[in-house]
Each structure stands twice: as structure tokens, then as C-alpha cells.
Amino acid sequence: MEFETVARAILGNIERVIDGKPEAAEAALVVFLAEGHLLIEDVPGVGKTVLAKALARSVSCSVRRIQFTPDLLPSDITGVSVYNQSDREFEFKPGAVFANIVIGDEINRASPKTQSALLEAMEERQVTVDGTTYSLATPFTVVATQNPFEMEGTYALPEAQRDRFMARISMGYPDASAELAMVQQRDSYNPFDGLSAVATIDDIAEMIAVARAIHVSSAVERYVVDIVQATRTDAELRLGASPRATLQLIRAAKARAAVHGRDFVLPDDVDALVQVVLPHRLIAMRGVSSVENVVARIVAETPVPAGAVHQS
After folding, report:
1. Residue 28, exposed/middle/buried by CB under 10 A (0-12, 13-18, 19+)?
2. Backbone φ/ψ region at 183: left (φ over 0), alpha (ψ -120 to 50), beta
3. Cys bridge to 81: 53, 63, 90, 256, which one at CB 3.0-4.6 A?
4. Angle between the 3-17 and 22-33 helix axes, to the nearest 10 degrees?
């Protein structure tokens, strides 16, 4: 298994379906290889679910899709114990969360009680039903989508759940050339036709192990900690990033370094990911228009420690 070869093949597969969004494709792959969870937040019709499905189709692993609705129950996600009359005992029927990749479509349309069914799964890779704990598959990634603008009939994700997502990305509208190509091709061609897996579950397990082993110097670790610490004391932020954010930013940076063919992390890896890892965890003070601008300022003001150099 050649890490770069498989990574390029997966990215190529995703980019066959998502035109002109290489950054979104790379972010999805980096989160997957860093064993994190991805929140895709944008307006309807820009390819949020398509991106999640393209990632899932590119790997020969188990995939389940959950359409979140107001009447969805926690047991639909985690599973339920059913009494088996012939055996005279309860039998556990696994829910949709028992898969390697779980696609949660429009996650903010379910009630807070149902959303909370994912908390244990996302953090501890297990679910507890009727006092019994069941381990989830490895690897395990939740790719959730939501529309941040349509508020009718939705329930905002609580901070505890947003913090469990390693990264949040937005697709954005395609540029004119990509949209024109889509118009010309999609009537006669479904991009999912012929889209087959280019990596096995064993390949992904090996890639995750490689990403874990990427070297992070103490200088780069200090750089990450300084950035996160600054979010907790900045006058424009009411809630700073958690220690979980620190760990996940480093894990994501390691996966990005591996995807780019390096066995060590650069500050550039941190800079490239900080805007998808931190802002969704932060709460701005009243009157602050953009958390992203605050994060950009903090990164610009944080000196790169001695021994950590940017890639030229």
C-alpha cells in the first residue's frame, strides 16, 4: 500500500463527482484518516451530501445513511433490544451508527434528544443500550450535513456536539466554469455511475497508522497550543477552543502531512487546517461579525517558534 497513491486515488474519485472543490475533498480525506468527524455546513444544493457519498463510495467499507427528521428516535441511531420469544431473551438489533462511515443528512432537523444519541458514539466509539456497551466499527467516521440558514423546523447543535466534530467545512457555490461543465454533463451522465472503491478497509487502516506515526516537533506542538490558548483569552471571543480542539488540530495536521507526502508536520499544515478545525467551536462576543476573522488574526499574531519553519 503506497499512501500517496491511494490518497490521490481517493481524492481523484471525489473530484470526479465534486467539480472545482479540491480543498473540500482534501479536508474530507484528512478528517477520515485522522479518525475524526466532519460537519459540512452550507446552503442547499451545493453538494454536501454528494461529497459525503463520494468519500463513502471510494472506500470498500460499511456505510449507513441517516436522514435526520423531527420524528427520528435515538434508538433508530443506536439500536434497540428486542425480546426474542423463541430464545426467551432480549436480542440487540444494531442501529444505523454501526458502520465505518455514517452519513447524517440534515443533522439539525432531529430533536436534541436524538442528536445526543451520537455523543457517546462520536467520542468513545461505542454505544450503550439498556446498560450494555457495544463497540463500533474501526475506522468510524460521522459525516454530517446541515443548512445553517434555514432555521424553521431545526434544532441548533449544542456546543458539546459541535466540539466533537474535528472539522467543519463549507462547500460554497461552484465557479462559472465548473457550473457550466455540470450543466453540460449531468443531463446525460451521472457522476456516481462507475464510481467504485479505490481503497480497501485494510488500506485505510494502514493509512491511519501511518498518519498516527507522523512526527510533530515540540516547536510545532507549542505553535498549536499558543494558537488555542489565544482563543481563550481573546477579547472578541466569549468561548475559546477546548483541549479536544488542540488534540484534533494536531491529529489533522499529521494526516495532512501524510497526504502531502511528508513524515513530519510543518506550521503550514496547521495554518491550512486552523480555519476548519477551530471556528465552529468558538463563540464570539456580541457585535463580532466573523469568528473566522478573529481566528485569522490570532494565527497572524502567533509567532512560529524557533525550530519550526514554513515550507518554502
Report:
1. buried
2. alpha
3. 90
4. 130
